[in-house]
Amino acid sequence: MTNRSQRPLAQAERLRRAYGAHAVVTGASDGIGRAFAMRLAEAGFGLVLVARREAVLEALAAELEPRARTRPVVISADLSVPEDVARIERETAHLDVGLLVAAAGFGTSGPFVEGDLAAELNMIDVNCRALAQLTYLFGRRFAARRRGGIVLMSSLVAFQGVPRAANYAATKAFVQSLAEGLAPELRPVGVDVLASAPGPVMSGFGQRARMAIASGQTPDEVAVGTLNMLGRRTTVRPGLLAKALEASLMLLPRSARAAMLARVMAGMTKAA
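C-alpha cells predicted for SDR family NAD(P)-dependent oxidoreductase (272 residues):
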C-alpha cells in the first residue's frame, strides 16, 4: 500500500522522463522550497538550490547528496537584485535543466498605507519581478529544447483582494494570472506550467509576515500535491485544506470572498 509520503517516488520516472536531469529550486533554504528540494532529490533530479543564505544551502546540499544522483549546486542570490537573477541562468548554462520551481517569496500583513514602503516594494521585486525574469529566462531555454516544466507558487489569496494583506495578495494574483496565460502559450512547445495555490502553510512565512498561523498545511504536503499534478493541470490546490477552503469560497462573489478573508486576516494579525 502506498502512503502519501511515497507518492513522489512513484512519480519519479514520469517527472524525469518529462523534464530531464536537473531542477532549479528557488527559496530552497526553508519552507516549501526546501520540501520541493527534498522530494526532487528523492525523485533522482540533480538540483540547483537557490536562496540568500549560502551556509544554510550548503548544509542542505550535504544532507541531500546521498539521496540525489549528484551533490546539489548551491547559488547564493538575492532575488530582489536583477543581476543576481540573471546569474542563476548563467551559472546553470552547462546543466541540462528542465524544471524550474519558483518557490521563493514572502509576505507582509497589516494596513497597506501603515506598512513600510521599502518592504512592500521589495516584496513586489521578489514575488513578481524576479519570478517573471526567471520564468522568461528558463521558459525560453525550455522552449528551445522543447521540453520542460515551470512551477509558480500562487496562493489561496490570489483569487480576490485581501484586506490586511492587500499587496501580498496582489503579488499572488500576478503569479496566478501569469501561469494561466503562459500555460497555453508554452504547451505547444512541450513546456508545462503549473500554478500551485495552497492555503495557510506551517512554515517560516507566517513569522516573517507577522501572521499568527495556528494551523495549516505542511510544506511537504504542498510539494507532494504539486509535483503529482505537474503536467496534468494549470492550477492545483495541493492538499485537503486548500481544497476545502476553495470549496468554501468558490461560489461566493469576489467581494464576499474578500470580506470573508478580511475577517480571517484580522484574526491572524491581531498582534501585528
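The beta strands are 22-26, 46-51, 73-76, 97-102, 148-153, 191-196, 235-236.
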